[in-house]
Amino acid sequence: MKLLYLNFDHGIPVCGDKGASVHVRSFITAAHRLGHDVALACSTLGTGNPPPPALILPPCPKPRAANPAAADKLLDREEVKLAADHAAPAHVLGALAASGFVPDMIYERHALFHGAGAAIAARLGIPRLLEVNAPLVEEQKRFRGLVQEDAARAIEHNSYQHADAIIAVSEAVAHHVGEVLGQRQHVHVVPNGVDLAAYAQNSETRAALRHRLGLPAQARLAGFIGSFKPWHGVPFLLEAFAAIAGKNPSLYLAAIGEGPEHEEVAARAAALGLSARVLLPGRAPHAEVPAWLSAMDFTVAPYLPQADFYFSPLKIAESMAAARPVLAPDTGAISQMIHHRRSGLLFPPGDLAACTAGLAELSADAETCAAMGAQARQEAQQWGWERVVARILNLARCPYPA
Length: 402
Description:
CATH class of the largest domain: Alpha Beta
Order of helices and strands: EHEEHEHEHHEHEHEHEHEHEHEHEHHH
Strand order of the largest sheet: 3-2-1-4-5-6-7
Low-confidence stretches: none
CATH topology of the largest domain: Rossmann fold
CATH superfamily of the largest domain: Glycogen Phosphorylase B
CATH architecture of the largest domain: 3-Layer(aba) Sandwich
Oligomer: single chain
Largest sheet: 7 strands, parallel
Number of strands: 13
Distance between the termini: 24 Å
């Protein structure tokens, strides 16, 4: 099959280190391994990692802001996205014609203010699968602000309505799509995948990285990998770590990533006298994530409480694929990913005492921790990217659930 992958989100550089960037590359790589030819049309190619095995069409040009000095910069950014969406069909169709690539199907990652994929599919007369990762209109309103809400909702509805099948990464996202459309007949829940081969255990890599970090031989290393955004809860994790650090001098914490709370976490660790045991190396290229996970004994995904937790956390799938048990809140899709006391530990969202107890348990019992990790690796087999992509692409032939 010849597949056209569309990623019109300017904030997702295909070759970047964001979880969304990893998702795009991994999907395309898996499709290629399954024998499909892929052409990629995107708005931002980015740098930092090799591009996926695809025909990379010239990136869609980003229109200039109509008035860079405008007081309402949020409105101006929305106008730029609307203009980009308007121009995308002609650009993509022209690039396809110039390349000679004739797709059999479209796979599109849904983006705010972008519905061009529906127009492109209609012009080509081919089916279109739409991947929805979040209720983007609600997310934009809550965290960043939204001026043209009616336009955003109209485009979202049209994009959903004209998809042959919709891939929702969690049950919460599927519920959102059903509310927008008034039905869920062609909505399928398919969680994020993981590259199983990349996360196979490597004892040599583990020993080398722990030596480089200067960890004592008997050290137990808890880890976090992700962005330091408020809802990810890294300060919450630090408080849990601080609560048992004095009683457990062999426990260390490595928090890998960057974001708005990074400086706050570093300052708090210093104030607690824990800078030597709280490792904050900053951003790590995604290619280095398997090595970091190999050095850790277990990981923590300390998401803060949210009424509508809709994520399908890639960091949890990667940790489990690396045979690392995960300590995480019992919420949303996480409750289905982690089997309590089999592949990790779950705690009530926002319960600092319960999170602290989980840290203590996983750090104190190395044997049980390793057994949970082995079970986590086994359970992660269901999320291998090739298996996930094969399931998704089959929906092009049977878009409605049985």
